[in-house]
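Lab meeting, item 3. Inverse folding demo.
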């Protein structure tokens, strides 16, 4: 079933868009890696950025809600780590897991 045919947009699809958007922002923020890219990879990255931006306009509200929920979960996890006196090193795997919640 396609997303456009369903009555409601699946949550998993919105979460995937959020993860993809975050990954793309991270890739674009790395200036050194961007300069070292081949021209075809740079074109593909820019093309992907444009297509994602165009696609995400339809689901802006849902994407913002998911991003807010992710930030709240991340803040709760970080507070829990501080309260339990967990060293910062174990926080990185937790940050990775929060993406899929």
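The presenter then showed the designed sequence:
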């Amino acid at each position: 079933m396609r997303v456009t045919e369903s009555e409601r947009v699946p949550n998993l699809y919105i979460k995937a868009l959020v993860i993809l958007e975050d990954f793309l922002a991270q890739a674009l923020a790395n200036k050194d890696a961007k300069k070292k890219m081949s021209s075809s990879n740079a074109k593909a990255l820019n093309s992907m950025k444009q297509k994602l931006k165009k696609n995400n306009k339809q689901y802006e509200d849902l994407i913002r809600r998911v991003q807010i929920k992710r930030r709240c979960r991340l803040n709760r996890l970080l507070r829990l780590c501080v309260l339990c006196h967990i060293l910062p090193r174990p926080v990185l795997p937790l940050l990775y897991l929060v993406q899929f919640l």
